[in-house]
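Lab manual, section 2.4: Encoding a predicted structure.

Procedure: take the sequence of the chain (326 residues), apply the prediction step described in section 2.3, and record the output as structure tokens. A sample record is shown.
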Amino acid sequence: MPRASIAQRVQIGVETTPGTAVPANRLLQALGIEKSIEIESAQFKPAGFKFPTISVVGKEWTEAELSGTPTYTELVYPLASILGYRDPTQLNPPSGTAYEWIFEPKANAPDTVKTFTVEQGDGTTNERFTYGLVTEFGMNISREEIEIEGTMLGKRIERVSSLTANPTAIRLEPILPTQISVYLDTSHTALGTTKIRPISIEWSISDRFSPLWVLDSDIDSFAAVNEAEPDTELNLLIEADNAGMTLLDTMRQGAKAFLRIKALGPTIEGATKYEFTMDACIVVSDSAEFSDEDGTYAIQWACSFAYDQAWGKVLSIKLVNDVSGL
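Recorded output:
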């Protein structure tokens, strides 16, 4: 039989040592990973020949596109890879089945991040790559839907005879557009005070890591990764009313604003609900043209994340769920 695209499932495992394969014992159901083989090669064509006579591969690695629908549960995996990892805190509201996860990239020190072994296949024809590291991640949020976008870097693909048996599927609890509230304030101490009504928000962090290539015959792909200067974007499309135009003064003054995106889901236990809260210090870098959005006169503000000395942070994401560990 041909290799059917519909049968290609993806599993991941959390690596103890980056680049050292582990069983891919987690089955993803809301986060898609679409891998591709990347190479850099050189061809040589000697004088008198119309076509190359030799081709040499110098670098080989894997890139993968991330897509899907965000959930309160599976989001811990990409966020632990791109923003930094710390152990979750068990909440006791009363029985302790709820956990709080905090993801906060440091402004001027290295972050501890997680890498993954990624397996994909149908059980008959399968591939694997190690050192799976999320280098770009973002969310597009509107009342219609919430989408995940991103990119993963990995070492070169290996062919494997089988997939890890009986992977654990993470129970899904989707973040719904109807659960989202957005706030914009002038200081970190007031975060979550002033509610605004944006039409859509798109945010991303990219260029997070850069691979290191060395001359070593024992290494068949990149040797390690270094943290790079990340590129951040946040586009806020909002009605051009008095509230929406306040960012004009913020931009002109070179001031900082503090944005909160918060979603509350169903109850886990007691009074504790599934929660996604993203707090960010932003600066306004540009604005797009005024536009008509279903009859509403709107404007889009182009922003980026910034460090605030008083807050001591750039970005903080909190997840509350029933996931006790990666």
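Check your result against the sample. The two ends are 36 Å apart (CA to CA).
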